[in-house]
Amino acid sequence: MHNTFLRRTLSAAAATGGAALLLFASAAGASAHVGVTPDKTDAGSYALLTFGIPHGCDGSATTKMAITLPQELNDAQPTVNPNWTVEKVTEQLAEPRKLADGSSITQRTSQIVYTAKTPLPHELRDALVLSVKLPERAGMTLYFPTLQTCETGQTDWSQIAKDGEDPHSLAAPAPAVTLTASVAHNAVEHGVAPEEQRTTAADSGASARSWAGLAAGAGGLALGGAALLRTRNRATDK
Prior knowledge:
Elements: H1 2-30, E1 35-38, E2 46-53, E3 62-68, E4 77-78, E5 84-98, E6 104-120, E7 126-133, E8 141-143, E9 146-150, E10 154-157, E11 176-178, H2 183-189, H3 194-237
Antiparallel strand pairs: 1-2, 2-7, 3-6, 3-9, 4-7, 5-6, 8-11, 9-10
C-alpha cells in the first residue's frame, strides 16, 4: 500500500511539474514581442495599459520607446518609471474635436516617448504604463505602433494584420487592445437592474468564498489522511 501511495504521489507531482513547464513555455512565447496588457477593456472606462519590453534589438540594449496613440485617443497619462525620462508629443488637429462635456480641443497627444536613463540590456525586461480613457465603442481594436530604438538598430512594432491574416504570423505586430462591452451595458443587455447586478456580484463573491472554504477543508482532510497513512505504515514496519 505504501508503494502504491508513493507512486501516485510522484505521478501527481510529475503532472504538476509538466503543466508548470508548459505554462512557462507559453508565457515565454507570448512575451517575444513588445506588447500591451490592459488592466481592463470595458468601453468608456479608464484603463492602465502596460507595455512590456522583453528584449532589445538583435542583442542590442534599448534606449528609447516611442508609443504612438491611436487617433481615437486624445491623451494619455504616462506613469513615472525611475529608469526612464518621459515626454508627451502633441499634434495640431485638422479641425477642432468636440468632447463629451461639450468643450472642444484643437490638439491632441499623439505620442508618449520614454528615454532610458541607462540603456536597458537585451537580456533584461521592463514595463511602461499609460493611463487612458477608452472610447465608447465595444468591439473596436486600438493599435499602438511602437518604435523601439536601441544602441544599434531599431525595431518598428507597427504591423497590423489585414482581413483574413493571422496576427501571429506578423514579424513585428503593433501592440493592440480590443474593447469589450461595459458592465453596465451587459446588465442592460440582459435585463439586469443595477441593484440586481450588485446583488449578483455579492452572491458570486460569497460563492467563491464558500468554494474556497470547501477547498481548504478538503486540503485539510487530505493532509490528515496522509498523516494517518504514514502513522500506520510506521506501525506496520515495526
